[in-house]
Specification:
Radius of gyration: 19 Å
Number of helices: 4
Order of helices and strands: HHHH
Number of domains: 2
Strand content: under 5%
Helix content: over 70%
Distance between the termini: 48 Å
Length: about 70
């Protein structure tokens, strides 16, 4: 992260362009791309040794019983 800051300070004229690219990426691509978040959540669950899909199915079963 510090390296990114240093690189940006070397080329300050590129900072607005990079900021606009980040805003576009996060607001338009990630906001409406639910599969992005599902993949990210699956990776987190896998790191913990859990299966997200199995948890969702179990939760749905519990909701049906109520």
């Amino acid at each position: 992260m510090i390296q990114k800051i240093i690189n940006n300070l070397k080329k300050p004229h590129l900072i607005p362009k990079k900021l606009l690219q980040k805003i576009k990426h996060y607001s338009f691509i990630k906001k409406y791309n639910f599969s992005y978040y599902e993949k990210k959540q699956n990776k987190l669950f896998d790191k913990l040794g859990l299966k997200r899909e199995a948890g969702i199915l179990k939760l749905q079963e519990l909701k049906k019983k109520k």
